[in-house]
Structures are given as C-alpha cells and as structure tokens.
C-alpha cells in the first residue's frame, strides 16, 4: 500500500511541477536573466524587468528532491525535467547543473552532459564531486589525459585517488601498473577500513609475486568485520597458506575464488561505493549544499549575509513510507544489511484488526525502496520497543525487541538478509515488563551487555559472547535501594574516569545516577551527584550541550503541566550536577506538550547540540544559540505534526546522505520522515568507529559507549557513541583539526585532520605489559626487554559464575632474574648505566634492583630460565650451556618447514598463527621438533627463545564469562612406544614478555629413541630460536654483585614504538625518538617525587620508587668491582628486580589510582580484611617525604 501511495503522490507532484516548468520555459526573461537567490529567506526572488517574481522555496526543494528520486530509480526523462527546473530556479547553484549532467551521462548524451558539468565547474571549480563527473565523462569519451588533468586539480580525497587508480588500471604499460598499486596504497591510507580497496591491492601484489605484502593485507582482512561469508573463508585461509609457502600459482587460484565470493557481498559493495566514480545523484554532501550560502576558501566557509534558515519538510509520501490505517508502536534505524545506509524497522498495529506487524524497510538515498525481501521477523505480537545492536560482535547488526506481549526477542542477523530467533538460547526472553532496552558494554570486556529498564526492577543481562547472556542478580547494583519503576535510561562517562555510568529516569519516583566502579558493578551516587531533586522523569537524553567536554543530562516529563518542567542538568566535569535554568523560556513549551522521547541533535551543523523532543503535543525543536541557552524553533517543523497528536518516538539519521540530520517521527498518524532542508549549509563530520574482529577482543564492533572528541577551530565537541555513525557539525570550518576517540577499553586514539566521513579503525596497541629496560651498549641506549613481568597486581580472573565476587591474580611482588647480553651493556665513563622506564598505561612500584656480572669462558653460554611463574621468591639457577645444536627438523601444525626461523636468534619468528577473537589467543597450533639422538640424556636442556603477546585484564574477564575460547597453556608431548603422542609436561610455561628464554630439562622424558617433541598451545607465542645444549654445572664462572652508585627519577616521555623483526616481532622501542605527549589517561594519586631514589632501590622493604607513565629511573653501577676478564673469557650480566606492576585497565582493581599501595606480606589485592600498608614510623616517613608528586585527572 505504501509503495502505491508513493507512486501516486510522486506522479501528482511531478505533473504539477512539469506544468510549472512549461510556464517557466515560455518566459524569455526568466530564461535570460539570472535568479537572485536569497538563501536566508523563505522566498526566492527572480528579477523580471522592474518587478521581482517570488518563487516558493518549497517548490525549489521539491523539484530538487523529485529529481533525485527519478535519477536514483533510473527515470531519466523525469529527472531531466526536474533538474532543468532546479537550474532555472537557482542558476547559481552548481548542484543542479551537476545532477543534470549526471542524468545526461547515464543516458549516453555526452555532449549535453559536458555542457552542464562545465557550468557546474565554473560555479564550484574546487568540488571533488563535480570534478569526478567531468573526469568520468572525459574517460568515457576517450579523453584520458583530460580526465587525469581534471582529477589532478582536485583535492586528493579517496574518491579522486581511486579514480586516478582506475585510469592507471586501464593502461597497459608498466609505469601505469606501478602507478595503480601506488594509488591503491594511497587510497588505503585515506580509508584504512576499506575492504574493496584492500582486496584489489592484494590482487595486484599476488599478480606481481609479492607474496609477503599480500599476506600482510590478507591477515588484516581476516581481522576486519564482518567475517567473510562461510563459502569464502576456506579460500581466504588457503590463499594465506599458499602465499606463506611461496606457492604463487595455487595462491592465484584460491584468491580468485575468494574474490569471487566477496565481490557480491554487501560490505564489499558498500566499501567500493565509498571510493568509486560518482554514479548516483549528488544530494549535497559534503560541500555541495543545496543552494549554498557560502563561498569556499582554503581556510573556512565564509558566510555571505544572514545564516540560512533550516526547515524540516514532511516527505513521507515522496519517500514511499506512507502506510495509512496503522498506528506505529516501535521504530528503529540500523544498517542491518551492511550496505552503509541505515534501514528502517517499523512495528505497527492495524486500526481495524488490531493485529500487529513488523516490517524492515530497505532505504537508499532517502527513499524507501520497499520491504526487505526475506527479512521476515518472528515477532508474533509485534514490538513495543526495538533496537539494533551487534550482540555477537560479528559485524552484522542484530535486533532486540520487547514484544507487545511483554516478552523479549533476540533475533540474530545471519548476514544474508535474514534473522534467526535465538531468544531461548540466549536466555533473554524474560523482559520483566521493561519499556526500553540499552545495549552497552557495562563491564568493559569488549561486548554489549543488555540493560532492561521499566519493569518492576531494572534487569541486567551480561553478555557472555558465546551466544548466551547471564541474568546478573540485583542488576549489578543498577536497581538502587528501593528503586521505583524506571521509564528510560541513558549512558555515558559522566565523571571522566573512563568507565560507562548509567542514568535511569523514573516516571513514578526518583531518578538515579549509577557510578561504574569496575568489573561490571555499580553504585548509586544520586545524592552525592546533586541529582537527588531529579524525579518523575519520563525520558532522558545525554549530550555535552555547552561544549565544555562533560556529558550533561536532559530529563523530560511525559504528562505535561502536572509533572513539572523539563530539566537540563549541567555536569561540572566530575560527575556532579547543577540545574541549568537559563533556558526556562524555551522549556515552557515542553511543559505544555510534555516529553516522551528527547534527543540531542545538531540540526544546523553549527557545532552545538540542539534539542528535539517528541511529546504528547507533537514534536518540539529547541535551538542552541551557541552559548548553551536554548530557543524555541518548533516553527521549523511541519505544522501538520504540531497538531497531529502525540509523537511517541523519534530517531535521527542522515537518511538521504546530504550531510545533515533528518528525522523519523512516530505519532498516531503513522511514521513521518522529516527531511532537513538547509542544515547542510555548514559541513559535518560523520565518524564511524570500526573495532577489530580478531586479535583484539577489547571493543565492541561500533565502539558503543566510547567517547569521541572533535576540535574544529574554536569549536570543541564531545559525544558518547550510541550508534553506527556519530555526527559532528563543523560550524564555519571546512575540516576538523583533530579527532580523539576514547575507546571503551580506555585506550585513546587520535586522528589529525580527519576527513568529512571518517572511519576510525581500532589500532592494535600495547597498553600494558611492564616497565622497560634500556642499557648503554657503547653507542646508544638499547631496548633490552621488559621487567617485573611476573607481577599481576589487581589483575582479575573474572566474575565467577555470575556472582558478585571477583577472583584476582596473586598479589605478590615480581622477583626475577633476567639475562643481559654482554654486548648490550658497556661501560660509560666508568659506570654501567641502566634506564628503567614506564611508558605504558600502568603504575610501576620498583623496590629492589641488583646487577650481577657473570664472567665465563668463551666456550660456555650462560642463561637463566625466564619463563613466567607466579609471584614469589626465586633462587638463582644458572644454566651453563655447552655443545649447542639446533633441532634436526621443525614443522608447524600445517606441515610447513619452520626450521630456518629457529636456527638463529635473528628476529625471524615462527609466525603461522591464526588469530582468534582475543588478543593473546590464537587458533590452537603445534610446533614439532626433532631434537636429535642426544636429547633426553642427563643434563640435556632445550632452550626456546621467543615472546608472548599477552591478554589483559578486560580480556581475562571476557574469557571467564564464556566457554568457547579458553587459554590452553603450552604443553610438551612425546611419542610413546605405539607412536602416539602423549603428554610429558602438561604445563611447559611461556616467556615472561619480550625476547625471553625458557629452559626445559629433557632428562628422562623420552620413553623411546624417538626424540621428537610437540609443543601445543593456543597462546600467542612467537618462537625465534631453539637449540639443545648440555648443562655443565662444573664449568667455572665468576659472579660479582655490582654496587649501585646513583639512581635518579625524572620525567622522560614515551618512545616511538615499532615491531622488531617485522609484523610478527615484539613491540620494540626507540629510545632516542621520544615524545613528551602522554598517550594515556592520567592515573591518579601520589607518586614518588623527582630526584634521587637510590635508598628506595637497595632492598625489598616496601619503600619503593613509584613511577607514573612517562617516568624514568636512571641507575648507574660502578664498573670497578667487576674486575678484569681472564683471557678467553667474556661477560654476561644478570639483572634482579623486585617490585609490582599495576595495569590501568578499566577492569584492574584500583587500576586508575596509585593507591592502595602493595607490600610483600599482602594476602590479596584488593586488600583482604585486616590487610593494610605498613604504618610504622619508617614507612610513614617514606610516604611523607618521597611520595609527594600528586597526579590528578585533567
């Protein structure tokens, strides 16, 4: 019915405008004179002799809109009529000529297309979109050089560079082939998440035989969401394995099959449309604003006269959305098919039959293309509430609905346009009478939890990310004490500590603010926050309305005059709120009409959040006057909606992709699409966060709950991410200066000079590991390794069994010996100089340092076992290795020969690992070594050197909640007499960080003369060197403790990070390339003051140097005590450290503060009952005199 109504409405308006166009065509004066366009007014004025002929502004917009409709649907004659009318009405608008040119281009009328595009370019020569039309035209008519020349004149955005790449692809010479590859790389730099460009570059590299570069890109494809379709995955893995082995011919075959399967998918096509030549109509995005009121300069948009007045036009019929005879009960927007455009879910109830039906509409370019084929939704009672969310982190938006029967329904997106009902498996059917549902990562473990509000109590379902949810007793503290029935909820980091807090509005009682205290637990802080007076609220919205960087709160009251006024609560930045009364005049309207659904939206792209509120008296629009004060602008909304009854729901999106925010409103008359006309006179930045699919597991797919900050000139904006795209108006500016993301795992990411549409791909970033050790090697300070790796202070092992009790790692100090090669530590002016730095997001408590000089014959190598063991006292065991020999053979679980990677310590790693969902875990893998006939005799030892990419606190929490992926510690197997593998060492251990050596005693482990061993694990361990040696304990050595002469604590900064040995090597650090800018959020508390700290490092006495991120301790040891080396001897060093590392991960106990302080007799961390830091006079004096440098959040 809706489709037929749309066609009739379109025909009716088209006929009327065609007749109007005929009138204009007969007016010579109108054809010959330019129309003067008054952009800030309601009317356009066309000079005609001495008179001015007023032109209805709405008529112009309708012609433009219908032209887009016709062009989008291939009705070229009709589109020509509409765009000719646009050109006549607004001859100084380049957009009309551009779209008319596109119409002719599609119809093969190249000469007419060229005439129109030249006119458009004269009006706007800098526009990339118009330039692309011209270049496309030249390419189609055989003028390739002219096309290149045109593209070279344009700003080098992704589409322009890709167009140049396609011109290169059409040429046959070798220079063009190299140019094609170079331009694809450039496009990928501009659009790092673009799947199509990445795969096209892979195809080029494989064709040229560059296997390793192709593997790198395919490994990145493997990490992007969504996952390739089932039939494509085997071809992807086969291609990677063939390329790794250098088998190019079969790699080309499997790659062709993979590309064939991918090219027909919606994500591939959506990514291609982001960069390919302009094919569809130009709707005014980003700088081709319809009737632009500005001239474009290199620095900013310079306003010409008054600011344009924005209006919202009801285009429901034209868009194909009309559905008479029904009443909407639920409304939701989401790009469930992965084509880059939001689609619409509407649940309606028939007025006649009272039956409910839920439809998914396919939306393209602002037009409803019809009900989605195949997307039948198993919602027998319809929906009272619905929301899209990617609950399983597979890259496809799933759907959760609260049925009109009161039950919850979770529908999983199968990735092919259909949905599967997984409610029973997920265990979320009991909605408890909820009115609304929020999907947000409340425990910061990388997946979206489900909070239901509006029943007798709030209900929290924790996402286990294995297809199930756990109903958390007491909603993890989100119920509050004696809580009344909630009506709505919103989330955001209100106090700036990095954790997501929750505000619950209650129509029947007091509202509540819940502070996230970590590990998914919440505390009611309503009274302390100043919000105790907030009560009786029907709905809530969150946004930084005054651009001070703190999230504020708006609450509205549903029932109009009897329930009080809407209230704007201003956040002081620390989670304390005061009532802002400056907008009482504008808010009187909300008192009259009530509020059911408020939303912060920057409808005019000026960089300040306005307010749109659906209420019982229709929708209301309040404009922010750029001071945080609101003015009533409801007159900009269609008058028919002001008297059309209660507006129960609104949702906001740039539906027609023209750079401003459009609105869907649901009221008793149906669902209305309100097109924003004029909001794109200023530019907007559309930000989409893209989390990694594999090898991370730290953030949910779209970064829901993250905080984004954008600065454009003097405008500073903060938003909390609540959906796929987060828009920012740029005011008078062409571009933003900087974009900063605070991901939900607490890690920041900064993009300078982001594009108008900016995908922010999650970076693989090491945020916690341990303190670093650099040594003077005679020429420079060299990074050697990380220290105190055995400490896991406050590290959670997860919430166990859904209870409120958390299990934590042992809290003891890391006590370890580490080997420093002799060539890495040389004397400097009579001193051995060591630099200990803290450069990651953690606090270091360095209590004791000892340096031992170990002198030994040249024929002997000395080692210590550097495998990870739990905290506790250690004794020095020195291995004296002689008769070193490599394995006879080494193969991985795919049968590939990896012996070349293990023969030497050369930063070439055994690396054929397939990432799983989480950082630190990969698919199970084997390493099979033939150790030779001497292995197994008394004194034989297997030495394995490598590094581990660790999990972190939040990943540990996530792993503890599900059963699909669990850590398998390395084990060592040998063959029994029947040739079967049997476990000899069930827990082999693993390297304690970067470039560490583990020593495995082989004596007596082989039951036969077969000396093969198989090492199995799913941990992300990369081995670099393997050899068997004989331990010679009788070999002479001389061990000399060296005396520390000085130790100085100071600020240094953060070293440049790179991967030593390529992408499979550990993160390494360039000491001489340092930045003073902190990449991390501050860790609050009192740390050790700068200056001398030698007394704190001489013994393990719980009086230590506390190091914050960016700090460095320089320790110098006297070389005189080591003495001279005997002839034929050399020197190796051993470093002993005692101390703690506390990661600042959001799930680490007290990770964001320095205190509570650790100590050696501690039983657990957080403290067990009765535990406390020593309070004797010496320790009190230490705290008072040394720990005086206070760090606070800015």
Anisotropy-based shape = globular
What is Rg?
Answer: 33 Å
Count of alpha and pi helical runs? 23
Per DSSP, what share of the residues sits in E-state strands of 2 or more residues? 25-35%
Question: How many β-strand runs?
Answer: 67
Fraction of helical residues: 10-25%
Report low-confidence residues grouped into runs of 5 or more.
1-53, 283-306, 799-804
The largest β sheet comes out as: 7 strands, antiparallel
Can you give the mean pLDDT? Answer: 87
Cα-to-Cα separation, first versus last residue: 57 Å
Secondary structural class: alpha+beta
Walkthrough of the structure:
It is a single chain. The longest helix is centred in the N-terminal third of the chain and has 24 residues, at 2-25. The protein is α+β, with helices and mostly antiparallel strands and 1194 residues long. Strands 40, 41, 45, 46, 59, 63 and 65 form a 7-stranded antiparallel sheet that branches. Strands 44, 47, 58, 64 and 66 form a 5-stranded antiparallel sheet that branches. It has 23 helices and 67 strands.
């Amino acid at each position: 019915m809706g489709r037929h109504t749309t066609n009739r409405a379109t025909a009716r308006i088209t006929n009327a405008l065609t007749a109007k166009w005929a009138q204009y065509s007969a007016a010579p004066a109108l054809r010959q004179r330019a129309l003067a366009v008054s952009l800030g007014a309601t009317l356009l004025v066309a000079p005609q002799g001495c008179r001015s002929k007023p032109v209805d502004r709405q008529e112009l917009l309708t012609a433009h809109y219908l032209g887009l409709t016709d062009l989008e649907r291939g009705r070229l004659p009709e589109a020509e009529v509409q765009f000719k009318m646009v050109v006549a009405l607004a001859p100084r608008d380049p957009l009309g000529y551009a779209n008319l040119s596109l119409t002719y281009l599609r119809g093969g009328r190249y000469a007419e297309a060229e005439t129109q595009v030249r006119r458009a370019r004269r009006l706007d020569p800098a526009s990339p979109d118009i330039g692309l039309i011209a270049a496309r035209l030249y390419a189609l008519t055989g003028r390739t050089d002219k096309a290149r020349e045109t593209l070279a004149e344009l700003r080098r955005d992704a589409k322009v560079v890709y167009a140049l790449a396609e011109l290169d692809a059409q040429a046959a010479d070798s220079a063009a082939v190299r140019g094609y590859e170079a331009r694809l790389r450039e496009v990928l730099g501009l659009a790092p998440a673009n799947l199509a460009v990445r795969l096209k570059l892979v195809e080029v590299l494989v064709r040229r035989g560059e296997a390793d570069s192709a593997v790198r890109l395919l490994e990145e494809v493997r990490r992007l969401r969504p996952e390739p379709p089932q039939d494509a995955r085997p071809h992807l893995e086969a291609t990677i394995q063939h390329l790794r082995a250098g088998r190019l011919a079969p790699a080309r075959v499997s790659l062709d099959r993979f590309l064939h399967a991918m090219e027909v998918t919606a994500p591939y096509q959506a990514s291609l449309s982001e960069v390919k030549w302009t094919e569809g109509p130009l709707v005014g995005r980003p700088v081709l604003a319809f009737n632009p009121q500005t001239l474009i300069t290199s620095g900013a948009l310079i306003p010409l006269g008054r600011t344009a007045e924005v209006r919202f036009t009801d285009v429901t019929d034209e868009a194909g959305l009309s559905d008479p005879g029904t009443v909407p009960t639920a409304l939701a927007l989401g790009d469930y098919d992965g084509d880059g455009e939001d689609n619409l879910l509407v649940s309606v109830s028939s007025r006649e039959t009272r039956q409910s039906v839920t439809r998914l509409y396919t939306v393209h370019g602002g037009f409803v293309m019809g009900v989605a084929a195949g997307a039948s939704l198993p919602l027998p009672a319809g929906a009272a509430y619905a929301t899209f969310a990617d609950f399983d982190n597979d890259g496809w938006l799933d759907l959760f609905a609260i049925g009109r029967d009161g039950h919850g329904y979770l529908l999983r997106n199968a990735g092919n346009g259909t949905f599967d009902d997984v409610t029973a498996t997920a265990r979320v059917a009991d909605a408890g009478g909820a009115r609304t549902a929020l999907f947000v990562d409340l425990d910061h473990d990388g997946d979206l939890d489900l909070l239901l509000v509006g029943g007798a109590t709030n209900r929290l379902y924790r996402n286990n990310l294995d297809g199930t949810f756990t109903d958390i007793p007491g909603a993890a503290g989100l119920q509050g004490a004696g809580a009344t029935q909630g009506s709505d909820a919103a989330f955001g980091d209100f106090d700036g500590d990095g954790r997501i807090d929750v505000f619950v509005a209650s129509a029947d009682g007091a509202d509540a603010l819940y502070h996230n205290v970590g590990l998914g637990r919440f505390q009611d802080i309503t009274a302390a926050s100043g919000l105790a007076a907030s009560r009786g609220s029907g709905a809530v919205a969150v946004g930084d309305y005054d651009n001070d960087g703190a999230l504020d709160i708006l609450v509205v009251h549903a029932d109009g005059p009897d329930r009080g006024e809407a209230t704007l609560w201003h956040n002081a930045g620390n989670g304390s709120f005061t009532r802002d009364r400056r907008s009482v005049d504008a808010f009187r309207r909300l008192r009259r009409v009530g509020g059911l659904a408020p939303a912060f939206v920057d409808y005019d792209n000026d960089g300040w959040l306005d307010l749109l509120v659906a209420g019982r008296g229709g929708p209301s629009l309040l404009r922010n006057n750029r001071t945080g004060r609101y003015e009533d602008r409801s007159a900009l909304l269609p008058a028919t909606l002001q008297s059309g009854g209660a507006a129960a729901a609104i949702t906001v999106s740039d539906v027609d992709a023209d750079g401003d925010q459009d609105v869907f409103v649901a009221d008793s008359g149906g669902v209305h699409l309100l097109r924003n006309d004029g909001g794109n006179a200023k530019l907007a930045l559309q930000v989409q966060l893209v989390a990694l699919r594999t090898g991370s597991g730290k953030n949910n797919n779209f970064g829901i709950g993250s905080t984004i900050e954008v600065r454009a000139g003097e405008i500073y904006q903060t938003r909390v991410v609540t959906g796929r795209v987060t828009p920012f108006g740029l005011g008078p500016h062409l571009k933003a200066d900087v974009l900063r993301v605070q991901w939900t795992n607490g890690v920041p990411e900064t993009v300078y000079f982001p594009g108008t549409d900016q995908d922010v791909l999650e970076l693989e970033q090491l945020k916690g590991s341990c303190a670093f050790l650099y040594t003077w090697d005679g020429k420079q300070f060299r990074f050697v390794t990380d220290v105190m790796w055995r400490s896991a202070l406050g590290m959670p092992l997860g919430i166990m069994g859904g209870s409120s009790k958390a299990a934590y790692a042992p809290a003891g100090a890391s006590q370890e010996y580490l080997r420093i090669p002799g060539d890495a530590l040389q004397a400097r002016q009579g001193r051995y100089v060591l630099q200990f730095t803290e450069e990651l997001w953690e606090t270091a408590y360095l209590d004791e340092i000892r340096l031992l000089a170990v002198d030994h014959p040249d024929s002997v190598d000395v080692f210590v076992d550097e495998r990870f063991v739990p905290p506790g006292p250690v004794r020095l065991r020195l291995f004296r290795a002689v008769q070193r020999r490599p394995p006879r053979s080494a193969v991985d679980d795919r049968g590939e020969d990896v012996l070349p990677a293990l023969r030497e310590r050369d930063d070439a790693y055994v690396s054929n690992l397939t990432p799983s969902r989480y950082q630190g875990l990969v698919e199970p893998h084997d390493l099979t070594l033939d150790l030779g006939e001497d292995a197994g005799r008394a004194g034989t030892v297997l030495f394995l050197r490598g590094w581990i990419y660790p999990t972190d606190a939040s990943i540990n929490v996530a792993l503890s909640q599900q059963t699909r992926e669990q850590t398998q510690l390395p084990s060592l197997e040998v063959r029994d007499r029947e040739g079967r593998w049997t476990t000899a060492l069930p827990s082999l251990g693993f390297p304690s960080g970067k470039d560490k050596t583990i020593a495995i005693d082989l004596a007596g482990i082989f039951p036969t003369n077969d000396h093969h061993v198989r090492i199995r694990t799913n941990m992300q361990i990369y081995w670099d060197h393997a050899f068997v040696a004989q331990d010679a304990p009788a070999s002479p050595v001389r061990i000399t403790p060296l005396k520390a002469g000085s130790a100085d604590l100071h600020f240094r900064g953060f070293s440049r990070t790179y991967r030593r040995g390529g992408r499979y090597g550990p993160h390494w650090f360039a000491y001489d390339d340092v930045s003073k800018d902190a990449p991390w959020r501050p860790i609050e508390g009192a740390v050790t003051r700068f200056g001398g700290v030698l007394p704190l490092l001489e013994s393990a006495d719980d009086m230590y140097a506390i190091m914050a991120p960016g700090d460095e301790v320089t320790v110098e040891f006297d070389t005189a005590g080591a003495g001279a080396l005997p002839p034929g001897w050399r020197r190796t060093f051993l470093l002993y450290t005692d101390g703690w590392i506390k990661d600042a991960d959001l799930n680490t106990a007290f990770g964001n503060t320095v205190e509570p302080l650790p100590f050696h007799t501690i039983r657990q961390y957080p403290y067990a009952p009765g535990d406390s830091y020593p309070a004797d006079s010496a320790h009190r004096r230490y705290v008072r005199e040394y720990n005086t440098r206070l760090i606070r959040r800015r």
